[in-house]
Design a protein that fits this description.
The protein is α+β, with helices and mostly antiparallel strands and 147 residues long. It is built from eight helices and six strands, in the order H-H-H-H-E-E-E-E-H-E-E-H-H-H.
Length: 147
């Protein structure tokens, strides 16, 4: 599964020009995709328990970013661009279930969305990335509860 994350991260590696001081993407919880915490932990040589905590939700173990600030968030910016989780790298695109299938939408609270400053193709490419990673339905349901 690690190679799936490596490929998805490489294929979808946008670097948005976020407004200075904006932290909207940091406000919500980060829920790692199944297997993603292990991939990020190995690639960054950092204990997964520093990044997140295992949480039992509806009988499924889900790794949720700790309440502590992300160790890669420094001076108002992520300093771990290469191995930021897919949820981080695809924001403000949010995956959700529509008629029992994966779909994506834009977070309308994001200033880039409000000002229509999203790069060409970002939404479509993010959707392709989410489809490639194919999160299980149970994960999408949990993610929607947190979003």
């Amino acid at each position: 599964m690690g190679s799936s994350f490596a490929k998805a991260y490489k294929l979808f590696n946008y670097d948005l020009d976020c407004p200075s001081g904006c932290t909207i993407c940091e406000d919500g919880p980060l829920i790692f995709l199944p297997g993603e915490i292990d991939f990020v932990s190995v690639m960054c040589d950092i204990s997964k328990e520093i990044l997140a905590k295992p949480t039992d939700i509806n009988g499924k173990e889900v790794w949720v970013c700790n309440d502590n600030p992300c160790p890669f968030y420094k001076c108002g910016r992520c300093v771990n661009r290469d191995f930021r989780p897919f949820d981080c790298r695809s924001y403000p695109v949010i995956p959700y279930l529509k008629d029992g299938k994966l779909d994506v939408k834009l977070d309308k609270t994001c200033p880039l969305v409000q000002q229509k400053k999203m790069g060409q193709g970002f939404l479509g490419d993010a959707k392709k990335g989410w489809e490639y990673l194919a999160p299980p339905i149970w994960w999408l349901k949990i993610y929607q509860e947190f979003s």
